[in-house]
Amino acid sequence: MGKPIGVIDSGVGGLTVVKEMLTMLPNESIIYLGDDLRCPYGSRTSEEVQTFTLEMAAKLAEMDIKMLVIACNTATAVALELIREKFNFPVVGVIIPGARAAVTNSKTSQIAVLGTTRTVESGAYSAEIMRQQPNAEVHALACPDFVPIVESGQYRSEKARTTIDKTLQKLSHKDFDVAILGCTHYPLLEGHIRHSLPRHVQIISSAVETVRDVEKELNKYQLKNETDMREDALFYTTGSRESFKAIVVDWLGIESPDVRHITLP
Ligand code: DGL
Asked: Among 3, 148, 159, 199, which has the minimal tally of Cβ within 10 Å of its Cβ?
């Protein structure tokens, strides 16, 4: 049995990346760590997010992972290079793949980015989109109320719908044909987001593109598990096991997931 791939996020958002990994990389074992206790990261300082991301990466390094996926835009925006410097395994973030998916799909190069306050203020998406498509115009919007709705399991509620509708009103005078879900929690809100954006706008999640990058790195470093045996995914949360488990069951369709509590650092 090969070594597992580690996946980290501030909470349950990275499960949207795991969902794609389970189908696109059927032979790979996954260890997930969500820092739900200290979520949301999006309203924290860059230094705090860097410290917490380092702590998560170190914990999974102790579990002998072969690669790390930072399935959190906020942590990718402020800590990707730091994590790459500190650890020997390959590290994949979500912003380069997300920007690539948006640039590839936009016909007008007018791109909206929905993200956390920290991600938007970091300018990481705008910089990466402009690097890939210098003519692009980026309309970035911080949506600080979205992550708490997902973490509390209310992503299908009426409250979610009205909050999202109100927040996305701020983009109503902008013209764009693609909107990036620049936070891994947001695919759980996609139905509501779809409802609140003009019909012609294509909604992009970075998950599929990120998993393509994970596969490229596995090939590049010859880390692919060539046998068709994999361990069941193992999930750690620093928060409540029960609410984490409910979202794993609902979102990933795993009947009895192995969800354990962990303390950081
Ligand atoms: N899933 C994280 C992201 O992609 C959420 C950040 C947060 O905790 O605010 O940005």
From this structure: 199
